[in-house]
Design brief:
mainly beta; Herpes Virus-1; 7-stranded antiparallel sheet; 27 strands; elongated
């Protein structure tokens, strides 16, 4: 019998609720990290005490969004989530399993103060795994539900080329309680992911038709559409390669992919791999994909200020439009994108121009480049605001095709090599900034500027 199924004595820790006192589920809001710099009181001239910084474990970034949701980030629904050390540990761990003949009336299910996972074997029998409070871990839950147990609300991602303002997702494939992440409160703050999240009653239910197995005292299962993860080969660094997509179980096991997301049979266990999140791990919820960046990994990513400085350096060379001879300016977050200085790129050759009508025929989607005479799409260059997608800290001199989002060479090379889950059993490479499927032989190209001539 696995060690986690053996009943242990309850732990006692400073943060654990007092016995006999009914307490609600621990929900600690993710506070913004404030600067520790003191500020003078405008009236008395005194200084206020420094604000204590929260320990940051890492960030979850939803692919397809360029720094914010189209309608703006609001509350728990955002394009990026910071996972920070909670003031009070709320992690849980499995301690014992129970074979129950009448699961609907079991105290383990009805007790709102008890976390449990129920595996229904038949109408008259279920195996319920009891979870107890863990003083050493913090738990974060992700899903489509807006109920309070969910820390991060994630909805289906609509690719950028389909965002016309009227596109509506008729039926979401993301689970209401999709997954949970358990992070050690002590260094090195190991983060582990598990399929399924606890609902408002602190329960997880795997119904009679769900994929599950019970043998040799072990019980585990998979959610309907599955939670997939992929670790980059070689780390999230220059030269990184796409890894192999796997499925994670409710108990944290790693399995080869099923024939399709909802196939009722489990695949083979991958014993050599685990559910520990690494910097650059991708998490797919079947409708949205998230990137995990560890706090250590984010130190090597460019800051927004550093990225703006690299763009300003390119603009300082005063690139010109070969046709209009006007100076072009790569856009930053606060610049207008429809001015005559806005750069456009020919996606077949990479030559950069300003907006002009030269070579424009009847085909509104394609025109001839005046520099090399190659015909192809003429697209507005866009800045990638989300720096967490970068695998290095080099200048953004390349763009994804066909959306023309700016990024560094290693960054475009990496993301063009990553197959992102699409639909029930499909995969395709996509721009991380807008989720538009990549096109062309490479999915990216280098920008070629006309040298400035005085």
């Amino acid at each position: 019998m696995p060690s986690w199924l053996i009943l242990r004595e309850p732990e006692v820790c400073d943060e654990e609720p007092k016995k006999g006192v009914e307490t609600p589920e621990v929900k600690v809001p993710l506070l913004k990290v404030s600067s520790p710099v003191t500020k003078k009181d405008q009236l008395g001239g005194s200084t206020s005490p420094p604000v204590k910084q929260l320990q940051k474990y890492g960030e979850l970034i939803v692919l397809g969004y360029n720094g914010a949701l189209p309608q703006g980030d609001k509350g728990r629904r955002r394009s990026k989530f910071a996972l920070q050390r909670r003031s009070c540990a709320n992690g849980v761990k499995p301690v014992k399993h129970h074979v129950v003949k009448n699961p609907a009336h079991s105290e383990l299910i009805t007790n709102s103060n008890q976390h449990s996972v129920s595996y229904t074997l038949s109408r008259s029998q279920a195996i319920i795994v009891q979870y107890d409070h863990d003083c050493d871990t913090d738990m974060f839950q992700i899903g489509r539900s807006s109920e309070s147990p969910i820390d991060f609300v994630v909805m289906d991602t609509v690719p950028g080329d389909q965002r016309n303002g009227t596109h509506v997702v008729n039926q979401s494939t993301i689970s209401r309680f999709a997954c949970r992440i358990i992070i050690d409160r002590k260094p090195p703050h190991i983060a582990r992911i598990f399929a399924a999240g606890f609902d408002s009653g602190r329960n997880i239910f795997l119904g009679e038709k769900a994929t599950k197995w019970y043998s040799d005292g072990e019980i585990d299962g998979l959610t309907t559409n599955g939670i997939l993860i992929m670790h980059p080969v070689g780390g999230f660094h220059p030269g990184a390669k796409s890894g192999i997509w796997r499925e994670v179980s409710v108990g944290g096991g790693i399995y080869a992919l099923r024939e399709s997301r909802s196939t009722p049979q489990k695949s083979s266990l991958v014993e050599s791999e685990d559910n520990i999140l690494l910097d650059g791990t991708l998490i797919d919820l079947c409708g949205a994909t998230m990137l995990w960046r560890s706090s250590q990994g984010l130190l090597s990513a460019p800051s927004r200020r550093e990225l703006d400085a690299k763009i300003a350096e390119i603009n300082a060379s005063r690139p010109q439009c070969p046709v209009g001879l006007n100076t072009l300016v790569l856009p930053s977050k606060n610049t207008l994108s429809d001015s005559e200085k806005q750069p456009y790129v020919y996606l077949t050759c990479g030559h950069v121009h300003g907006q002009h009508s030269w070579g424009k025929g009847d085909d509104t989607h394609s025109r001839v480049c005046p520099m090399c005479r190659m015909k192809g799409p003429f697209t507005k260059v866009q800045t990638g605001q989300e720096t967490g997608y970068y695998v290095d800290n080099e200048p953004p001199a390349y763009v994804f095709a066909p959306c023309a989002h700016l990024a560094s060479e290693e960054t475009v090379r990496y993301w063009a090599s990553v197959p992102i889950p699409h639909g029930c059993h499909g995969f395709r490479a996509a721009c991380p900034y807008c989720a538009t499927p990549l096109t062309g032989d490479l999915g990216w190209l280098k920008l070629i500027f006309q040298d400035h001539v005085d």
